[in-house]
Amino acid sequence: MWGSLAQNALLLGLAIAATTLLALFFIGLTLLQPKSPGHEIPLSEARTLIDAKKDNPVSQATLRDQDARLELDTYSGEQLWSSYPHSDSYTSALLDALGAHKINTTVDSQAGKPTLRAVVQFLLPILILATLFALFTVLARDKGGAFASFSKWSGKGQKAGSGRFTFADVAGAPEALVELREFTDYLENPSKYSELGARAPKGVLLVGPPGTGKTLLARAVAGEAQANFFSISGSEFVESLVGVGAARVRDLFRQARLAAPAIIFIDEIDAVGRQRGAGMGQGHDEREQTLNQMLVEMDGFGAEAGLVVMAATNRPDILDNALLRPGRFDRQVVVDLPDVHGRTEILQLHARTSPVSPQADLGRIAAQTPGMSGADLANVVNEASLLAVRAGKPMVEQEELEEAIDRTLMGPARKSHLLTQDELWRIAVHESGHAIVAEAIDYPVALQKLSVVSRGRGRGGATIYASTDQLMQTQLDLQKSLITSMGGAAAEAYVFGMLSTGVEDDLNQATKMAHSMVAVYGMSPAIGPVSVGETPGEVFIGRDLANMGNVAAETLALVDTETRRMVLDAEETARQILSINTDVLEDLANSLLKAETLSGPSLDVYMEAVAGWPEPLIKDTSHRSPIHLRRES
Ligand SMILES: Nc1ncnc2c1ncn2[C@@H]1O[C@H](COP(=O)(O)OP(=O)(O)OP(=O)(O)O)[C@@H](O)[C@H]1O
Ligand SMILES: [Zn+2]
User: Fold this and answer.
1) CA-to-CA distance for 147 and 440, rounded, in angstroms?
2) What is the Cα–Cα distance from 295 to 599, expressed in whole angstroms?
3) Whole-number Å distance between alpha carbons of 574 and 579
4) Which residues are found with C-beta within 5 Å of the ion, ligand 2?
5) Binding site residue list for Zn(2+)
6) Given a cut of 50, is residue 541 above it in pLDDT?
7) What rounded mean pLDDT belongs to the chain?
8) Of 109, 162, 360, 469, whose CB has the highest number of CB atoms within 10 Å?
9) Per residue in 599-622, pLDDT tens?
10) Higher pLDDT, 218 or 553
11) What is the tens place of the pLDDT at every residue in 81-121?
């Protein structure tokens, strides 16, 4: 809860300083009370002495105007003093009286002569205030207190030129680099875009598991384009008070605008960018305000600004749709875990800055580390260097590198393990299942890439399709994508006789889709073309039935049954497709296991061998059998 050790020390120090200063202030005030000589008399008595008409006893008077004190010396050698009301009129009245009786008077206004007392009186309160202010600021930053908006936002500007990263510092992510070129292009010459009235690229979402170099990529874009770099993490907004996050966002954008061309990098954007209205409990309002402010800022600058906002997440699925609209984060760049090729390149890159022996076989290290991220691999090289130093060797040899793999796996930050051969094989079968099923039913979106490592630990591989621009989807389209989603689970069940946790995302997606088909799009014959009032894609489970309005409980039960039936049907179809393509499944899975990723021609070979599925994908069409209508164009 309480930040770092250093922050604690700072807090303690400030608290002590504030207390000390406060004590000094009061001690100082009493001790430095000016000591007037002699004894105090009431003002009335002093006036009587001054005003005495005969034998005036006062030999000499001193007006200490600043302290509002009147000191009187008498001819009898007495020293007396008295306080008087501190006002200009009273002072001049006193001076008049003294003058009238020709009393020798000194006025000591002390103006322009700062005494110790003045210092105490005026500087100490300022010092105390400053210390208290600093204290609050630190507190606020740490706990999200009310003063946080005064504290400096924690974004850091990176001066172009100092310790810059470039694309040469990123290895094993060629696709990401290609996509990011456009942003460096724009940053190097924003006016080109504004002159042409072209829509400048504004926001890009870097999607990928931790440690895959998302931050590195953002910095590299800044470095390539000689742009300034500002970064902030979404998690910094969590737990702060309402309004603080929004203020920081405003600040950040203002600073970046002044420093343009610039990149604003928002790490862990999912911490603020979740679906609005989906959060619960504390910090929810704050998150929404911060998110809204972000949207406002992103809409508030045009092509001429020379600003690019990059954000990183590994959960793009939970982001608020408003963030993904055109003119905001409308681009996504996937930053996958590297395959064996990528890992070799990353190792080579990091080996360049360490004394790695040319005899070391980095390809072998790459082959032993499926599932490791770029950050893990950088760590392997680093650990190996430490081991070499400890062993007194001048160079890092194979031995150290291999030991460093184990050390990296045992490291404190590491939450998972390497993918074993068994896991890789299962993932290869699963992904091949998706691809073969999609091919057999002529899934309308092109398959681009198959991978057994790319999607992050514990999540298995990925089957990546080109994104589609299609706005309207028919029942057949949805049915195809449902069957394709079930291809992975069907393959696991078909080949291994049981599922694994790797099917989680697929089943989730398939269930949501089937549910929408039933409850929203009227595609289930049992329910008919009736909307059950649900938001597309939401699942009933755990939902408050009281919110369901006019929908009868029986209907809800029927929606459930129909959803399940649709998913089961799709799985059955997928399984049958696989059973007529067992040979392709075997070959493809093996090839994938060896190469870790397949794309382009090496993938096409297998796809061409897939036998198509001859049967209709939509059953139960009896209630809506088509007729033939002449169409004239
Ligand atoms: N593709 C890569 N090429 C070279 N080095 C890499 C690569 N990926 C990661 N690294 C190394 O790992 C370090 C950490 O990566 P970075 O912080 O950019 O990852 P990230 O994806 O932003 O992680 P997180 O999501 O945890 O913030 C980099 O500074 C770099 O040394
Ligand atoms: Zn899958």
Assistant:
1) 61
2) 36
3) 9
4) 488, 506
5) 430, 434, 506
6) no
7) 80
8) 360
9) 889 999 999 999 999 988 887 665
10) 218
11) 888 877 777 777 777 777 777 777 777 765 444 556 666 66
Beta carbons of 200 and 160 less than 8 angstroms apart: no
As a whole number of angstroms, the distance between CA 397 and CA 357 comes to 6
Place of tokens 């929810």: 284
Contact 310, 206 (CB under 8 A): yes
Tell me the CA–centroid distance for residue 403 and ligand 1, in Å: 22
Lining ligand 1 with CB less than 6 A are 170-173, 210-216, 267, 312, 346, 349, 374-375, 378
How many C-beta atoms surround the C-beta of residue 9 within 10 A?
10
Q: Report yes or no: 240 and 144 within 8 Å, Cβ to Cβ.
A: yes
CA of 505 to the centre of ligand 2 (A): 7
- 366 CA to middle of ligand 2, Å? 25
The Cα-based distances of 621 to 523, 524, 526, 618 in angstroms read 10, 9, 11, 7
Smallest-distance ligand from the CA of 212: 1
- Across 526-541, average pLDDT: 64
Q: How far apart are CA 401 and CA 383, in angstroms?
A: 8
Ligand nearest to the CA of 334: 1
Q: What is the ipTM of this complex?
A: 0.95
User: Which of 167, 216, 453 should be mutated for ligand 1, with most atoms under 8 A from CB?
Assistant: 216
Rg (the chain; Cα; Å) = 38
Which segment of 170-174, 221-225, 265-269, 540-544 scores lowest on mean pLDDT?
540-544
Residues making up the binding site: 208-215, 430, 434, 506
Active site residues: 431
In this structure, the strands spanning 307-313 and 462-465 are: unpaired
Torsion angle (degrees, nearest 10) of CA 271, 505, 508, 606: 140
